[in-house]
Amino acid sequence: MSKLKIFAAVSAAALILLGTIIVHQLTGDRNHVATDSHTDISDPLDPTAASPETVAVNAITIIHTWRPSQDDSAWQALHRAHALLTDPIVRAAATAPDPPPRPIPEWDSWSRSHDQINAVVIVAKAALLEGDDATVVVRMTQLVIHPDGATTPYQTSLLRVQLHHVDGKGWLVSHYQPTQETP
Fold first, then answer.
1. CA-CA distance, 123 to 37, in Å (whole number)?
2. What are phi and psi of 6, to 5 degrees?
3. Rounded distance, CA 148 to CA 23, Å?
4. 127 CB-contact burial (10 Å; exposed 0-12 / middle 13-18 / buried 19+)
5. Residue 151: how many CA atoms within 13 Å on its side-chain side?
């Protein structure tokens, strides 16, 4: 089995797990009272008590997971991540850019075919903490998920994610950019 097929299979399994968690969070009973036989698990996307690595992975996953048949542009994914962002990037997520950025060349064909682009993000280098600031390096792989379930690799990037700890809100992403640094 080729490395690409193994990577695609592992990535697809990770996407299914992420999708299951998100669906559960969106449809679960928010008023559930924990008993001795059940444990109340807090929202996994809540940054309040999360580590910088967790917030970085969650934010980059949301920002780079696109729904071309539902969204006008990738900006809408950035907007969906606003709860995990702080200045200066939260300002970019607040209002759609005018004029809009140059579209992703494949966007229209993805939209017509109802493809979805899912990001799989892993920590490549643990957080470097400096007071209320942290830097996490993540590896982000985007896969095109076709309506028939087939996947096509799109791109992989190594990203340096900068976070700032905000009192009462936890770690939030302030900036990210591609990096060539070795994890």
1. 33
2. -65, -45
3. 20
4. buried
5. 23
Question: What is the block-wise mean pLDDT of the chain (183 residues), using blocks of 10 residues?
Answer: 60 57 53 48 72 96 96 92 93 87 91 97 96 97 96 96 95 95 63
Q: Give the span between the Cα atoms of 102 and 105, in whole angstroms.
A: 9
The residues, any chain, with a CB within 8 Å of residue 114's CB and separated by 6 or more, are: 69, 147
| Other C-beta atoms lying within 10 Å of the C-beta of residue 40 | 8
Nearest Cα neighbor of 14 from 162, 151, 137, 127 is 151
CA distances (Å), origin 53, targets 8, 22, 48, 108, 110: 24, 19, 13, 33, 31
For residue 49, the one-letter residue type is: A
Domains of the chain: 48-178 (3.10.450)
